[in-house]
Design a protein that fits this description.
This protein has 959 residues and is α+β, with helices and mostly antiparallel strands. The protein is 22% helix and 27% strand. The chain has 23 helices and 42 strands. The strands form eight sheets. A 13-stranded mixed beta sheet has the order 21-18-17-25-24-26-27-34-33-32-29-30-35. Strands 1, 2, 3, 4, 5, 6, 7, 8 and 9 form a nine-stranded mixed beta sheet that branches. It has a four-stranded antiparallel beta sheet with strand order 13-12-15-16, with no helix packed on it. The protein is globular and about 95 Å long.
Length: 959
């Protein structure tokens, strides 16, 4: 009886019955020019990769379609094809695909290697169009394509070669899927070779992104398209064994897909093959083109026969929610309409394969109907067999900063990706969980996978007792092997919650639930006590002294001291039993003389249960010997509305100093005003001045007085903030203006706009010579819209420029201030130094400052990067571009410039900048939303003492 019951359970749980409510495929297409930049350093490109993946996680997405091959070039280490254009046609110093896979899996994301198949337009040495020109398609007269090269699917050598390319990725990389794009015959004709279309019009590189006029004329051509090859010329007639050319062409493409699928399955059956098919499968041929009749792509056949595990069409023509729904499932949603996808794909649906829809985010943005995303997804979800969405493309979601909004309105919960059909392998063994209660609302869950299964792991949480892995909330998704821990903060309850976990193999075949842990009764509503204001963290002889000030008026039971060291998680060091409500400071024995520590205090309320306040400031300390540095936190402890109590900004600086080996302590500006900390005891001071709200940023009179004394005594000061100069100069009183001009040797010029490009570049000959970096554009906790544009005095020098030519971003000086005892050194930044990313660039910037302060760290390479010494216009990136592009150039010495854009007729379209310009690298962003697609010419005129020079560059705008 028991054996029979077990067999029944295994049969039940082997079916994909948990896929209805908490499984959905969610991804964007990430194009090459958005995932790598040839002008970036390795660290900058890796940061870009992490940012892309973090954005997907932020929106509760669970996959990414990552382009790895384009136009016959690649973006991974290949022994077959050369590196692509956007990597500079050379090894970028790391393996972009390997790094992206690792970082995606670290975040619980699938990564599908996006593979542009038969279009191989780059005739670079080593590319197939260069090495095998005989593989390029011909027209009915036997003429080869002279541009926009596409390989012939009719040639077995081509199909075998492309399967070999696919298997190079599958064999060498731990991808979750291979994603085919341009897996079809080309649409080009003789007109395209003679430029009847402009170059920009013919440069659409992706399936489904094509011109409406080509869509209308595609089938009016009789034989002048490039649909033949050297082995199958028009004159020889239809290949033997096929009734029509169309049947042969469809067979060729299908044969490639089948062969690639079989090869993948033989090596790694968990790698899911998907195809980006044209949005029109097999209808409307009479008015334009479709996949089946025009480019000979039988995607429904591949799906139904199991040659692919997932079908991901590009439904770019349908922008209205109801039109989108009808295109998928017909007017009634029953798939009985022969101009909808559901009519053709039911065998594949019944086999359990995945079908996900591809909305055109780029068109929703261009047509100013971005809000249609919500209703489009909502309406499409009414189709029972639809498995999710992939949006084209990432760039528009990034530009619209849609991640948080999408999480709120479209994807409020984490979801898994279901298995593509019934798995014939053995069901994974369920993991085991251990749960520890941290406080009333916080539980730590440790998951121990059975047999160290490498695969996907899900942690579920359900309110009440309805345990159902197909319905319950997923609170964590992890990929990997071995035990791991996750900390969960419960919502308000009025009930008990249950935790459990499951394991899934690489094909997403899921185990039975683990053991189930039941929480204590969670109160219906909680009230958090108010946080504290950290005052300082300093080291005494044998202990650390931590001091804080209560912020609120609600009576507290006491405080909890948390600390973390060496990259570990926070741990409770002292609780409220010792730190009762009367305490405002504590001495902690030195825990490890070699370690760095970050400390924070949380208030504990008097009620039952004893709720904790949110985390407030976090202050660091590090004792490595040598001179002592001081980080001064100039943020107000809390905003007027009580929001943003957590300010980890001093912590960021502390972590950089630890990596640089710099001894330091932390304090609040309030502690200096209260004379608890004396600036004169420190060799150098880093003063961070807070948010963009002027109410919370201006230096107080006591701050100014003590900083003035410090500088008169030869102090060394780094001070930064995006409204520092504005508040001291334009909005400040006489004393503030005097301090800015006579002590910081800086003048306020203007308020920047739109982050001034969110990039800064070191000025030749300055302390930041050769340094180029980004600062935060609302991706890492800041939203720096209006950084200060600075100006120098007679005794100071510019050291940083904003990358878009908006002016000076940083100033340095080494001079005597008023009534000085000795000369002071200062660096003033018009943006927050803690907002610089990646971390390595923040470290480098601080290292340059400390070198200037005559105490160079030993843990960082301070050598300036090699700089070009001649006038150079690098051009624009990306090129071709859609709506926006970035233009970069190098100026070897101060002079005058004009940067303008003209059209093909020589008419000036826009002047991007003109006037005086400082030496160094500059960049401008051109927003061409109101311009028609086509060729444009960029012109840079540069005048200096030795004469006038001019540079030109051709750009291509796609519309």
């Amino acid at each position: 009886m028991l054996k029979t019951l077990i067999c029944i359970l295994l049969l039940i749980f082997s079916l994909p019955i948990w896929a209805d409510d908490n499984s959905e495929f969610r991804a964007t297409w990430v194009i090459t020019w958005d995932l790598i930049n040839k002008y970036n350093s390795v660290d900058q490109n890796k940061t870009l990769c992490r940012q892309i993946l973090d954005n997907h996680v932020k929106a509760n997405m669970n996959a990414v379609l990552w382009q790895v091959r384009q136009d016959g070039t690649v973006y991974y280490k290949s022994a077959i094809e050369p590196w692509g254009k956007y990597a500079g046609y050379k090894n970028p110093g790391y393996d972009p695909l390997e790094y992206a896979i690792q970082e995606a899996h670290n975040r619980g994301l699938e990564l599908h290697a996006w593979f542009n198949v038969f279009r191989c337009a780059d005739k670079l040495f080593g590319s197939p169009a260069y090495e095998h020109p005989e593989w390029i398609c011909t027209n009915q007269d036997g003429q080869f394509m002279t541009k926009h090269y596409c390989l012939s699917p009719g040639l077995k050598e081509v199909r075998d070669y492309l399967v070999k390319m696919v298997m190079e990725i599958v064999r060498n990389y731990d991808v979750d899927g291979i994603h085919f794009d341009y897996v079809r015959w080309n649409e080009f004709d003789d007109d395209d070779m003679t430029l009847n279309f402009t170059e920009s019009e013919a440069a659409y590189p992706f399936d489904g992104v094509y011109l409406e006029k080509k869509f209308q004329k595609a089938n009016s051509l009789s034989g002048k398209r490039f649909l033949y090859d050297v082995e199958h010329p028009y004159q020889n007639g239809v290949p033997k064994g096929f009734p029509t050319w169309a049947d042969w062409r469809r067979w060729c493409v299908t044969e490639f897909v089948r062969a690639a699928h079989d090869s993948i399955q033989s090596l790694k059956p968990w790698v899911r093959l998907s195809a980006a098919a044209l949005g029109r499968y097999r209808w409307d041929f009479e008015i334009g083109w479709d996949g089946y009749n025009t480019v000979y792509q039988d995607a429904a056949l591949w799906f139904n026969e199991g040659y692919i595990e997932q079908l991901t069409p590009m439904h770019y023509h349908w922008l209205d929610p109801y039109d989108f729904y009808q295109m998928l499932a017909g007017p009634k949603g029953d798939s009985h309409y022969d101009k909808c996808w559901g009519y053709f794909i039911q065998p594949g649906i019944k086999a359990g394969r995945l079908f996900s829809a591809g909305p055109a985010s780029y068109l929703l943005k261009d047509k100013n109907i971005w809000g249609n995303h919500v209703d489009l997804v909502k309406k499409a979800r009414q189709i029972p067999w639809l498995d999710g969405f992939q949006f084209f493309s990432y760039a528009q979601w990034r530009d619209m900063k849609y991640w948080d909004t999408a999480r709120e309105l479209i994807f409020p919960q984490k979801v898994k990706i279901r298995s593509a059909g019934i798995n014939e392998q053995k069901m994974p063994i369920a993991p085991v969980i251990q749960v520890i209660k941290q406080d009333t609302f916080v539980y730590s869950i440790k998951v121990q996978p059975a047999n160290n299964l490498t695969g996907w792991h899900y942690i579920y949480r359900v309110k009440g007792d309805n345990v159902d892995p197909g319905q319950n909330d997923i609170i964590n998704i992890r990929f990997g092997t071995g035990a791991y821990a996750f900390t969960d903060r419960l919502p308000d309850g009025g009930d008990k919650f249950r935790y459990y976990a499951t394991a899934a193999d690489r094909q997403r075949f899921e185990s039975l639930p683990s053991n189930i842990f039941v929480t204590d009764l969670v109160p219906e509503k909680r009230t958090f006590p108010e946080p504290v204001a950290m005052q300082y963290v300093i080291k005494l002889e044998n202990s650390y002294k931590i001091c804080w000030t209560p912020l609120g008026t609600i009576p507290a039971r006491g405080y909890r001291l948390y600390g973390k060291s060496g990259g570990h998680d926070w741990k409770l060091l002292i609780d409220e039993k010792i730190l009762d409500a009367s305490k405002t400071e504590v001495l902690v024995p030195v825990l490890n003389s070699d370690a760095s520590w970050i400390f924070t205090i949380r208030t504990v309320g008097r009620g039952e249960p004893p709720y904790e306040s949110p985390q407030s400031d976090a202050y660091g300390i590090y004792q490595a010997g040598g001179d002592q540095y001081l980080i001064v936190d100039g943020f107000d402890r809390t905003h007027a509305d009580g929001s943003e109590n957590e300010h980890p900004f001093a912590q960021r600086i502390s972590e950089s100093l630890v990596r640089l080996g710099i001894s330091h302590q932390c304090c609040a500006d309030d502690a200096i005003a209260a004379k608890l900390i004396n600036l004169q005891n420190y060799q150098s001071v880093i003063w961070i001045t807070g948010t963009e709200n002027p109410k919370f940023q201006q230096l107080e009179y006591n701050d100014i007085a003590r900083l003035a004394t410090y500088l008169r005594n030869g102090g060394k000061l780094l001070i930064s903030g995006s409204d520092l100069a504005l508040n001291l100069g334009k909005n400040g009183d006489t004393a503030s203006q005097k301090f800015l001009k006579n002590y910081l040797k800086t003048e306020y010029r203007e308020d920047g706009t739109q982050g001034n490009g969110y990039q800064a570049a070191g000025i030749v000959g300055s302390i930041f010579d050769g340094l180029n970096f980004s600062f935060d554009n609302n991706q890492f906790g800041f939203n720096i819209l209006k950084p200060d544009v600075l100006d120098t005095t007679l005794e100071s020098y510019p050291c940083l420029n904003y990358a878009n030519g908006a002016g000076i971003a940083g100033i340095q000086h080494f001079s005597r201030v008023e009534n000085a005892v000795q000369a002071a050194k200062a660096v003033i930044l018009g943006f927050p130094v803690e907002a610089v990313y990646p971390e390595s660039m923040r470290d480098s910037l601080l290292a340059r400052v400390f070198k200037f302060f005559n105490n160079a760290p030993t843990r960082v390479n301070l050598n300036a990067a090699h700089l070009l010494k001649k006038f150079e216009l690098y051009g624009n990136y990306p090129n071709p571009f859609n709506a926006e592009t970035i233009i970069r150039f190098f100026i070897p010495e101060d002079g005058e410039y004009t940067l303008s854009v003209s059209n093909l007729l020589g008419q000036e379209v826009v002047t991007l900048g003109s006037g005086l310009i400082l030496a160094g690298e500059h960049s401008f962003r051109w927003k061409a939303y109101d311009q028609p697609g086509g060729i444009y010419f960029l012109q840079l005129n540069y005048k200096r003492s030795s004469g006038t020079e001019r540079k030109n560059f051709k750009m291509m705008l796609l519309k």
